[in-house]
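HUMAN: You are asked to prepare a plain-text protein record giving the amino acid sequence and the backbone structure tokens, both parts labelled.

ASSISTANT:
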Amino acid sequence: MEPGKPSGNGSVRVARERQLGDLLVRWSFMAPAIVLLLVLLAYPIFYTIDISFSRFDIATFGAGAWVGWDNYREVMSDYRFWESLKVTMIYLAFALPIQVVVGFGIAYLINAEWAGRGIIRALFIIPMVVAPVVAGGMWRMILDPLWGLMNYWLGFIGIGPLDWFGDPNLAMAAVIIIDTWRWTPFIVLIATAAMLALPKDVFEAARIDGCNWWSTLWSVAVPLLVPVIAATFVIRWLGAVKMFDIVLAATYGGPGKATNVVNLFIYEEAFRSLRFAESAAMAVIVLILTMVLTGLFLRASRKLEELF
């Protein structure tokens, strides 16, 4: 062995020390984010789970005596909880497909070459920056059955006036309209970025072959965008399942319980009826259902990516 050169064992030790030092440096950069996630995410989840298996002590605002599955049995036998889940599923079944289809359709139109499209793109961002409570209040005025703008416009084609917040079916439609107005721009931004990344030569070949805009959209753009559409659906699903603020501002769950989504019901049970333990059990059940459905959607999106 030449003088000054480390032995084989020494080289391995030095390499391991370098790897360990590199690992420590990486974790030191990640440590603030990990602590923040533990404080803001992990602790509330475990706190909620702990309460869901206990009697809630209002004096200490924490878990009291252990009751096991009693809170869950009570929740599972509460028909109001299942009705609120049904209302939430109805909202999701209509709102998500509408928002994805409208969002990608608008993105396709504003990506075409026409004057003023830059201004239109900028205007589409406005609904995203409006606070949900403000959006709910604003649309409550627009949809007012007596002096709202919506009924005024519908009057020109002989429809109305419609009682948007008094009819159970129209109330859910109003919630979907408000939510679509607020979140479609988010999907438009994702779709626009995806369309700009598509290969231009494919569209040029379609144009040379004489395809019109509809054929180009349906036969060229949509197959290329299927993985992005699936991923966008999952992202929007994770946001939509937390629906609360717009319903609180616009309908407060009414008329009756027509728009009483599950998050609003949990809020009412916890902070109005002071049933914190039962509400914690409801929250845990909703969390599990959301995780299961999200897993299924992610698996389906991967299948679509492999297919297309």
The radius of gyration is 26 Å.
